[in-house]
């Protein structure tokens, strides 16, 4: 069996708390075949990038690299998060393109390739994650690396005309052809990539997933929707009800219905629109006043990027505005909390909620939608209100699907979920849950790796 090498911007070290679902999945994959996880160390240094740190844990090794303040700023805060992130989330209005950050992104990718190449064995299988590392395979090939290399894009692949707005897009997106397999979250993302390759790359896409770049190089692309460990989340959720913080939340609600939203504080998640839709709901359904509390958990994210600072201010204003207009001495309609919680607690919060509000403007998949469903009590499952523009919508048709730009439509869906008879809630939930259990995170990684090795 070949060794697996995982490459991602952040590495979840073996004993890190709060390892997310992806971290758990990658650790399990590494344990199965033995392997190496390579990425940024999380450390910014004065002086040069490139110092390596190594740690062995059983059959898995961790190798991480320091970045200088300037490299990190250009590569991560700059090109990855102020250029690519908005572009890939269809937000041309927020794209900030600068030659120096683009150059920094290329430089860091070349350095990743150089340092990684020195760690590789001949039959290693390499799996690269996400938009931070698009050119990595091309740089590895330049160094003579002939290994199997796969890439998974966690975020959406937008329409080709949007991609083409990026200066030198042919070079960046053309470099994807250096991978052997490219995985997307949904068939739609795959379609859009194939159109890009045809329209702008001078290449070809065949019905069986094979693709040919303009220079004749063959590679493959497919849809591999990511998922969660549904059984683990269900166990965590039913154990969580005895936790003090979950009990306190329950007591604080009294007989009120809980609607919950859980998102990184990111403009792709559609939080201002969601707050406004909730306000519209309060305006249009006064009879429900005092009966529902909306809890939004939104841990601060990318706080060095100006667009994220502006979003934070906007949400603080909106939460204050809605509560100022609608609250009563004994009722606060919106509870807005910028904190992280462990999954042990978070799943308990999901389980208390009768409504899950997941309304991103764009999202590669959105794992919160899946975690919400997996956490429900089968005897009284909550209702998921889900944006059509989340990758998850392709697999979760029994949710109440909404257009997050249509505030009245979202307000209607909240009212519909609030009034939904228990029998219908159960029917919808069973269908969603069955599919989740069949298609869990283990199946996701196995399918991708099988395709990469094939
Ligand atoms: P994200 O944009 O981070 O991921 P998402 O898929 O929803 O979005 O995952 C967020 C994770 O963070 C979830 O596991 C959630 O539980 C956790 N989380 C959020 N708020 C939290 C809080 N307050 N406390 C604790 N945990 C919290 C990117 C893409 C997605 C894609 C994933 C995986 O943007 O579209 O689904 O990668 O591929």
Describe how the helices and strands are arranged.
Layout: E1 4-10, H1 21-33, E2 35-45, E3 52-57, E4 60-68, H2 69-88, H3 99-117, E5 125-129, H4 136-142, E6 148-152, H5 160-163, H6 169-174, E7 181-184, H7 187-199, E8 204-205, E9 210-212, E10 218-223, H8 230-240, H9 244-253, E11 257-262, H10 271-284, E12 292-297, H11 306-326, E13 334-337, H12 343-352, E14 355-358, H13 367-375, E15 383-387, E16 400-402, H14 407-419, H15 422-438, H16 441-453
Parallel strand pairs: 1-2, 1-5, 2-4, 5-6, 6-7, 7-10, 11-12, 11-14, 12-13, 14-15, 15-16
Antiparallel strand pairs: 3-4, 8-9, 9-10
The structure holds adenosine-5'-diphosphate-glucose.
Adenosine-5'-diphosphate-glucose (ADQ) is lined by residues 20-22, 154-155, 226, 262-264, 297, 299, 339-341, 346, 363-368, 371.
What does this structure look like?
Belongs to the glycosyltransferase 20 family. Pathway: Glycan biosynthesis; trehalose biosynthesis. It catalyses: D-glucose 6-phosphate + UDP-alpha-D-glucose = alpha,alpha-trehalose 6-phosphate + UDP + H(+). By secondary structure, the chain is an alpha/beta fold. The chain folds into 2 domains: 4-227 and 441-453, Glycogen Phosphorylase B (Rossmann fold, 3-Layer(aba) Sandwich); 230-438, Glycogen Phosphorylase B (Rossmann fold, 3-Layer(aba) Sandwich). Helices cover 44% and strands 19% of the residues. It has 16 helices and 16 strands. It has a 10-stranded mixed sheet, with helices on both faces. Strands 13-12-11-14-15-16 form a 6-stranded parallel sheet, with helices on both faces. Helix 8 (230-240) crosses helix 13. The protein is globular. 47% of the residues are buried. The model has no long low-confidence stretch (mean pLDDT 96). Residues 20-22, 154-155, 226, 262-264, 297, 299, 339-341, 346, 363-368, 371 line the site of adenosine-5'-diphosphate-glucose (ADQ).
